[in-house]
Amino acid sequence: MVLDGSWYTESSDELGLGFSLRIKEKLHEEVSDYQTIAVYETETFGRLLTIDGLVMLTDRDNFVYHEMMTHPAIFSHGHVKHVVVIGGGDCGTLREVLKHPAIESVTQIDIDERVTRVSEQYFPQLVDSNDDPRAQLAFEDGVAWMQNAAAGSVDLIIIDSTDPIGPAEGLFNEAFYRQCHRVLAEHGMLVQQSESPLAHSTLIAEMHAGFARAGFAATHLMSFPLPSYPTGWWSATLAARDDLALAMPTETLDFHTDYYTPAMHHAAFAQPAFMQRILAAS
Amino acid sequence: MVLDGSWYTESSDELGLGFSLRIKEKLHEEVSDYQTIAVYETETFGRLLTIDGLVMLTDRDNFVYHEMMTHPAIFSHGHVKHVVVIGGGDCGTLREVLKHPAIESVTQIDIDERVTRVSEQYFPQLVDSNDDPRAQLAFEDGVAWMQNAAAGSVDLIIIDSTDPIGPAEGLFNEAFYRQCHRVLAEHGMLVQQSESPLAHSTLIAEMHAGFARAGFAATHLMSFPLPSYPTGWWSATLAARDDLALAMPTETLDFHTDYYTPAMHHAAFAQPAFMQRILAAS
């Protein structure tokens, strides 16, 4: 069947895949200095944010992404005080980081201020921690910011970017990873969204090799479901500056989550057999 | 954007979701006594089998489903000798079960022989264990078969059916579960595909409650990615006749898998926080 205009569809000829959400109305569309930002009201997934026609998040499933981009890395490190988020203009990652009372500062650096302003208007629950005194929002280029940052000044870098094409391309290569490595304090960690295990396993292997060449001592792949991203199966890569055993999450959490639990933390690091083989060979 | 006729699209107004695969050609379509069966050649997911317009499987991702419908239950039981598969006419589940040398018999009962005949023609890799002397294929009604089966005669029942509408509706209720419970031997187990944790959590809770009312001592939910099913996030429910600790998988497997590993076995049983709350409340 062919879907009519009451559906929003993201399709990729390269992946041979399409994903559609039934929409009630388009709430917003603008062309910022960097990209086209749009917001839709969907029938069953709440609001939908798109950038350049690609799904960034929906009200209904962003909890999985934001929780998995933050809590596993924070607990695996064990003593995070200073966090930098590269990208993440919707502020959902920032909100999750701020749930950890021991964290002293979080700096979010997104090149496009309009993403944050649109989130403030249409996704109020994502920005509801933005007035936390520990949070700082900067609207500038993440690559340049990292080049200028002091060595050893950050415990955790979270790279919460769009796909490795367009504005985010510079965030997926060895040169940037070297800068991140320099900026990380002793025992520091980095976590980056790393696309679909099924559709982008070559990219994942290249990312892991890039982290190794940039000096990171260990990389760990985490997988999780993400219905609104291509294949519905997504991943994040944790890269550790030093080769230490990962810390364990606490038995119970002091804050509310919808996906993350200590058991899901462990589960996310388990590798499907095919991915185990790909990573072992790379 | 609106996708043209070179895409196969499965959409659900109820879920507000659509999933599309770019196709090269339709290879087959027939109306059997029970349903419409079609096969497409896709651009990136290999061949696609549909029944009544719904995706049953693709070459590219069926490995996750078939491995997770079989190996976790077989290893959790620990001493499976006699298996019954209800549904599963594509024979992919049968193939995975037969990888376990200790299993002595597997009977597959699918109401529609045409599904198996179409699989023989278009999905040769799924049927490549059908001539194993331990395998028996019956083409009859699974509900009736279960009513006539001897008490205590089966170690593991695998319900590998379509959605709980249409021909498979009778496989998702307490009356059928009671029959299964009767047919299971001491320490017997049942595993049933249980739809999407995100989209069908109410159904999952109802299924678990139904198993409990039918006499099963324990139920365990397993989750896994499945790109070609709605939301890309799927589940299976393991119901145990007796409340024993689940056996642990062996450290290494004696056969090839692409998704299942002992670590993924453990990972699949971890519950997202929202699902933990739903199951605790039901």
Task: Describe the protein's architecture and organization.
2 copies of one chain form a homodimer. Chain A is built from 9 helices and 12 strands. Chain A has a 7-stranded mixed sheet, sandwiched between helices. Chain A has a 5-stranded antiparallel sheet with strand order 1-2-3-4-5. Helix content of chain A is 27%, strand content 30%. In chain A, 52% of the residues are buried. The longest helix of chain A has 13 residues, at 201-213. By secondary structure, chain A is of the alpha/beta class. The mean pLDDT of chain A is 95. Chain A is globular. Chain A has 2 domains: 7-56, Spermidine Synthase, Chain: A, domain 2, CATH 2.30.140.10; 62-281, Vaccinia Virus protein VP39 (Rossmann fold, 3-Layer(aba) Sandwich). The first copy, chain A, has helices at residues 62-68, 71-77, 92-97, 113-122, 142-148, 174-183, 201-213, 262-268, 273-281, and strands spanning 7-12, 17-31, 36-42, 47-51, 54-58, 82-87, 105-109, 135-138, 154-160, 184-193, 218-225, 233-240. Chains A and B meet through β1, β2, α8 and α9 of A and β1, β2, α8 and α9 of B.
Concise overview:
The structure is a homodimer of 282-residue chains. The first copy, chain A, is an alpha/beta fold.
